[in-house]
Automatic annotation (TrEMBL):
GO terms for molecular function: catalytic activity. It comes from the Eukaryota. PROSITE patterns: PROKAR_LIPOPROTEIN. InterPro entries: AB_hydrolase_1, AB_hydrolase_fold, Epox_hydrolase-like. The lineage of its organism: Eukaryota, Rhodophyta, Bangiophyceae, Cyanidiales, Cyanidiaceae. Residues 70-89 are annotated as: Disordered. This is AB hydrolase-1 domain-containing protein. Residues 132-419 form the AB hydrolase-1 domain.
Length: 439
C-alpha cells in the first residue's frame, strides 16, 4: 500500500509501500526514523478442516487437474491470521482462508470467505447473490479486505480478495522477464492486472458461482485494474453478456502525474524523480527507509488521516502493529524493489475517468457495468474536491458517495461504515441469473 506518486498514482512525487499514495514530503518528515515493531498474530479457528466437504472446498479445486498452466488452482486452504481490530471467525461469521491460482504460470494468492452454503443451492435460505472480488491498492494486498469479506459472506455473497501480481503473497517476477508459460513479458501495468482479474473470475469464481455475474470492489490504483478488467471484457465484443456487472471504486487513483495530466512543473519534476529512482544505489536505500516499521507507521497514519503521536488512541485503533507488519512483509521479499520501481516509472496507460466514459459510450456492443464511487473526505492523497469534480457528474457513474472523516483506505479504517454501503450497492444490482450453461 505504498504509493507511487511518481507516475502510477497521484500527488506530487513518489513514495513507497503503503495505502497507495505517500509523497516525497511525507518521506522527508519520516527521514531518520527507525525501529522494529513486534508482531502479534492470532489464528482464526480452523473451522474448514472440522467441516465435512462442502461447496467451499469445491470452489478452490476447480481446474486443479487441468493440463493448462493458466488453469491450475491449488486447493490447500490456510487459515488467515486475525490481527488487532480485525473480525475473527465466530459461529455466525464464515472463516477466511488463503489459496493460490496460476496466472500465466505465476503463482497468485487470494483470500476466500464463503457462505456456509451457496445462495443458489436448495439448502440455502438466501436469495441468489452476486459474488464479489475485492482488489487492493499499490503496496497493499488481499489482507486489506479482511474486515469486509466476512460481512459480504454473511449476506450470502461469495467474497474474495486477490493479491495482484507483484504484491502480497503473489509472485514478483522481474519486469520484462518472460512469464513462465512463455505467453507474455511481465509488466506491472493496469492492462496486466486487469487480465489477471479476468482470469481469476473466469477460472476460480464463475465455475462455482451459480450465477452469471460478478461485482468488483477496489481501492486506489486497484480501481483502475478493476475498471480495466471490465473495459477489456467489453472491448472483445463476445457474443455472450459481460460477466463483470458492477465496479465499486473506493478513492480511485487520479494519476495526477500521468503524462496527460502533468502540470508544467510536474512535467519537469516527475521525469527527474523517475531518473533519480532509476539509480539503483539511491533506490535501494530509499526503499529500505520506507520499509522501516516506524516509517511505515507514519505513512499509514497519514493515509488514514489520523495522528502519529504516541499514545493516540484513535490512531492505535486503526494503524496497528499487525497492519504495519502486513504492509512491511511483502516489501521485504526479493523482487519488491523492482515492482516498486516499475510502477514508479509507469506514467502512461489508462485513466479511470476515460475507462468509465468509454464503457458508458459504447452501449451498442455491451451494457456498461454499474460504476459507483465512494470517496473519503479526508483522503490526503486523492483529494475529495478533485475526485468530486472528476467523477460526480461523469457519464457512466451511477452514484458518488462522500465518506466524511475518513482517509485513503476506509474499507480497513471504518468497515462499519463501508460494509453497509457495499451491501446496499449490491442489493441495487439486478437479480443475478443462472449461467447460460445451466439455464
Amino acid at each position: 500500500m505504498v504509493k507511487s506518486e511518481g507516475s502510477g498514482g497521484s500527488g506530487a512525487s513518489c513514495v513507497g509501500f503503503v495505502a497507495c499514495g505517500a509523497s516525497w514530503r511525507a518521506a522527508d518528515k519520516v527521514n531518520g526514523w527507525a525501529g522494529r515493531g513486534p508482531t502479534r498474530c492470532a489464528r482464526l479457528p480452523r473451522r474448514w478442516s472440522a467441516r465435512p466437504p462442502s461447496w467451499r472446498r469445491c470452489c478452490v479445486m476447480v481446474g486443479q487437474e487441468s493440463t493448462r498452466v493458466d488453469d491450475r488452482v491449488h486447493s490447500t486452504p490456510a487459515p488467515v491470521s486475525s490481527g488487532d481490530g480485525e473480525v475473527a471467525a465466530t459461529p455466525d461469521t464464515p472463516p477466511i482462508t488463503r489459496h493460490t491460482f496460476s496466472f500465466h504460470g505465476c503463482r497468485c494468492s487470494y483470500l476466500a470467505c464463503l457462505p456456509d452454503s451457496p445462495p443458489h443451492s436448495p439448502t440455502s435460505s438466501l436469495p441468489p447473490a452476486t459474488p464479489v472480488v475485492c482488489v487492493h491498492g499499490f503496496g497493499a494486498g488481499a489482507f486489506h479486505w479482511k474486515k469486509n469479506l466476512p460481512a459480504l459472506a454473511a449476506a450470502g455473497h461469495a467474497a474474495y480478495a486477490l493479491d495482484l501480481l507483484g504484491f502480497g503473497d503473489s509472485d514478483m517476477p522481474q519486469p520484462g522477464a518472460l512469464a513462465p508459460d512463455g505467453r507474455f513479458r511481465v509488466a506491472y501495468t493496469f492492462e496486466v492486472w486487469g487480465a489477471q482479474i479476468r482470469r481469476f473470475v473466469e477460472r476460480v469464481v464463475m465455475p462455482v458461482a451459480g450465477v452469471s455475474q460478478v461485482a468488483l470492489v477496489a481501492n486506489s490504483i486497484g480501481c483502475l485494474a478493476a475498471l480495466q478488467a471490465a473495459h477489456s471484457e467489453r472491448a472483445e465484443r463476445k457474443p455472450v453478456a459481460p460477466v463483470i456487472a458492477a465496479v465499486t471504486c473506493i478513492n480511485p487513483s487520479l494519476r495526477m502525474l500521468h503524462v496527460k495530466k502533468r502540470s508544467w512543473l510536474n512535467g519537469i519534476v516527475a521525469p527527474a524523480m523517475i531518473r533519480l529512482l532509476a539509480y539503483r544505489p539511491f533506490a535501494t536505500r530509499f526503499f529500505a527507509l520506507l520499509r522501516r516499521p516506524r516509517v511505515l507507521r507514519r505513512i499509514l497514519c497519514t493515509a488514514y488521516a489520523v495522528s502519529n503521536r504516541d499514545g493516540d488512541a484513535a490512531a492505535a485503533a486503526v494503524v496497528t502493529e499487525q497492519l504495519v507488519e502486513e504492509v512491511r512483509r511483502p516489501a521485504l521479499r526479493p523482487g519488491a524493489l523492482d515492482v516498486f520501481l516499475a510502477f514508479t516509472a509507469y506514467d502512461h496507460g489508462p485513466l479511470a475517468e476515460e475507462l468509465i466514459a468509454e464503457m458508458a459510450a459504447n452501449t451498442a456492443t455491451a451494457p456498461p457495468p454499474r460504476v459507483c464511487i465512494l470517496w473519503s473526505e479526508r483522503d490526503p492523497w486523492e483529494r475529495f474536491h478533485l475526485g468530486h469534480a472528476t467523477f460526480a457528474t461523469l457519464p457512466g457513474v451511477s452514484r458518488f458517495v462522500r465518506l466524511p472523516g475518513l482517509g485513503h483506505c476506509p474499507q480497513d479504517q471504518a468497515p462499519e461504515v463501508v460494509n453497509p454501503l457495499l451491501l446496499e450497492l449490491l442489493r441495487e444490482l439486478p437479480a443475478p441469473l443462472p449461467p447460460p450453461s445451466s439455464a
